Amino acid sequence: MKKILLVFGTRPEAIRMAPLVKELQLHPDKFQTMVCVTGQHREMLDQVLKIFDVEPDFDLNIMKRGQDLYDITTLILNGLKGVLQQNHPDMVLVHGDTTTSTAAALASFYMQIPVGHIEAGLRTYDIYSPYPEEMNRQITSKIATYHFAPTALSKQNLIEEKVPENQIVQTGNTVIDALYRVVDKIKKQTEIQAEIHQTLKTKGYDTSRLEQGKKMVLITGHRRENFGDGFIHICKAIKTLTTSYPDIDFIYPMHLNPNVRQPINEIFGEAVIPNMFFIEPLEYLSFVYLMEKSTLILTDSGGIQEEAPSLGKPVLVMRDVTERPEAVEAGTVKLVGTCYDTIVNEVSELLDNKLLYNKMSQAINPYGDGKACKRIVKALLEIQ
Ligand code: UD1
Ligand code: UDP
Asked: What is the torsional sign of CA 17, 75, 128, 106?
């Protein structure tokens, strides 16, 4: 029996690791599955744990309001030390590029415990974009023994960095597993649909507007490299767009990071704009519902670049580079940076130009077929 410890701490990691937890738990004779959450995120993490019904065995509960990278790294290193010493896992699984994942990989390395890296091999090769994620994932790749690469390109990146090919498995991205589960739930269960409508109503958005066919632009933002001027330009561009398109709703579920909220307050203040909806972060089901109902998505998120193409939604990404070029190449994702004029022009063009819109809204799926977790577990079963 292998003891596997999964460590994660933020919203996107939890969404992508939850289906893997469930898949591992289907093999109680082969794996003792343990979950440690760092609590790098608190409310936004707990929302995901609840939706996917995952109960952590350990919770480091490290989040502090306005935490910095030193806080996160040191608290996780010290917190995990005890968990690893007391439980001696045979392998630690970490995900992606957050500081939780890199600190957890390092803590495991210090105890010479092999690390498996889920969503391995994504790269921009610009260590400040995204920051600190690009360096985080490169460090984690150096530490990891097993690399679960989502796409052929991410596998190739690792091969070019001299990772032995027999330690890489191409699996697809577990985010598509999570997405399919949730889309299926929403489609099949009317009581879940009712809950989503109620949740959104409570948060300040009446979904009957969308059910009646209103167009909607969904917005998210949180990248550290966009803090300050980047977010000011983004907010100004959104404000202009709400005036130019009064018949379209703009919904922005705001990340809880104070650096994201400050520019929103600065640019929008107390202004009441009838088609602009700033709402609290959404649990995954309601967010997926909004993605499905949206006309287009304006975001700097990593994960949304993978989910939206599979739902046939064009994504304009407010970044200069992306580690997810597959959907850009396929034509459903476009990089627009954080310049005010570019954002206003690109969103307007997509809203006005039907031909362009149709071209960008093809449902494509370079990131997986919903079976990534099965492939990861199969590979773990084969490891001696
Ligand atoms: C983190 C990750 C980033 C990932 C993002 C996903 C790092 C360094 N950053 O960025 O890679 O893309 O999560 O969202 O690993 N907060 C709350 N409640 C929450 C979550 C956050 O109040 O549930 C507030 C706190 O004030 C916290 C701040 O947001 O200090 C920043 O959280 P942090 O995890 O440091 O950075 P993110 O921007 O969320
Ligand atoms: N998401 C969510 N609620 C929200 C906004 C986003 O559940 O209000 C989901 C989204 O579908 C995606 C993930 O959170 O799966 C992305 O998280 P985020 O953008 O914070 O992080 P990133 O992917 O950039 O690391």
From this structure: negative
